[in-house]
Amino acid sequence: MRNLDDLDVKGRRVLVRADLNVPLDGETITDDGRIRASLPTLRALAGNGAKVIVCAHLGRPKGEVKPEFSLRPVARRLGELLGQDVAFASDVAGDGARATVEGLQEGQVALLENLRFEPGETAKDDAERRAFAERLAGLAELYVGDGFGAVHRKHASVYDVPALLPHAAGGLIAAEVDVLRKLTEDTERPYVVVLGGAKVSDKLGVIANLLTRVDRLLIGGGMAYTFLKAQGHEVGGSLLQEDQLDQVRGFLAEAAERGVDLVLPVDVLAATDFAADAAFDVVPADAIPADRQGLDIGPRTRELFAGKLADARTVFWNGPMGVFEFDAFAGGTRAVAEALISSDAFTVVGGGDSAAAVRRLGLPEDGFSHISTGGGASLEYLEGKTLPGLAALED
């Protein structure tokens, strides 16, 4: 996989596939972490005299132009962070984009409108996707893939465009791949993985693969209740995936067979309803009342998990331990994050809600070895899958 140093970019139009899929409240960006992660590559290209054309997606407009998914607010924030005006194209690969690109001087940056306004970007039909990729590639002379959060998608801007232009991996993708290799090759032990989030079904593949690699697997968040139910415990009104119980029983049996320490909550915050101001009690994880639902791991579990992380040499964490968006139920996620910060381990936060939680809770980002920009991509890499966007950058 070539990197930026392998490209002569001076005076040339360089199309950069970035990941700028940030959360918006109206036109206000509530977390600009992904924009900031894209800056080193964009600065390097602009500093070397490239005419930088950034493309990215926002949300799921499903091939339709929807103003609420416009990247215009992102262009403004990107310009503020780069310290220069960022030209914004009124379309993705049409007349507006061509005019914007033609106006670029060396060292200047433009952002195209939301890629997913074009049906061809996400088309399942290879010919339709390729036709859009040809229009997009026609704007540039070189391609840099740097949107790690999208490399697990077989989309035109990620998979097809690199086949049409000389290409290289940007600094962000290179860094992400380097970190993920450390989690899959010659990993320093004890190797501990912490998984949370809502659904077991979202992490079936990664759990199956990790059980062959890790020393300990700590399970929290909504997915923990399916594990507890699989052990025969009642979970009240907590989030439960009944259709995954057999699969989870298989995971529990395999962990025991392989000697993997699979750790579940021993207590939870059991709330009357799913609300920020809900009344709650701390109850044993195997005795959740029928009229309550678990919204966070309890204080004993926080201590238990911290103890299981204390001597780790490598830690991967993906998924919050509770409903961290509600202050009353953010304590478990904070406890795990703080345990990672206190650890001497190589610590990786696996993107998505975990990365958002770190920022929302005001925790120091430099307290972790790496915070990934791609939750889904990270998980699929750890499953052992071939990621289309990475395969497209290989020569």
UniProtKB/TrEMBL annotation:
Positions of ATP binding: K203, G294, E325, G351, G352, D353, S354
EC numbers on record: 2.7.2.3
Main location: cytoplasm
Localization annotation: Cytoplasm
Main enzyme class: transferase
InterPro entries: Phosphoglycerate_kinase, Phosphoglycerate_kinase_CS
Any GO MF annotation of the entry: kinase activity
UniProt keyword list: ATP-binding, Cytoplasm, Glycolysis, Kinase, Nucleotide-binding, Transferase
Substrates-to-products reaction catalysed: (2R)-3-phosphoglycerate + ATP = (2R)-3-phospho-glyceroyl phosphate + ADP
Statement: the UniProt record of this protein carries the keyword Kinase: yes
Pathway: Carbohydrate degradation; glycolysis; pyruvate from D-glyceraldehyde 3-phosphate: step 2/5
Residues involved in substrate binding: D19, L20, N21, R34, H57, L58, G59, R60, R116, R153
PANTHER family referenced in this protein's UniProt entry, alphabetically: PHOSPHOGLYCERATE KINASE, PHOSPHOGLYCERATE KINASE 1, CHLOROPLASTIC-RELATED
Family statement drawn from the similarity comment of this UniProt entry: Belongs to the phosphoglycerate kinase family.
Binding partners and assembly: Monomer.
Protein name per its UniProtKB record: Phosphoglycerate kinase
Organism the protein comes from: Nonomuraea harbinensis
Organismal lineage: Bacteria, Bacillati, Actinomycetota, Actinomycetes, Streptosporangiales
Gene field: pgk
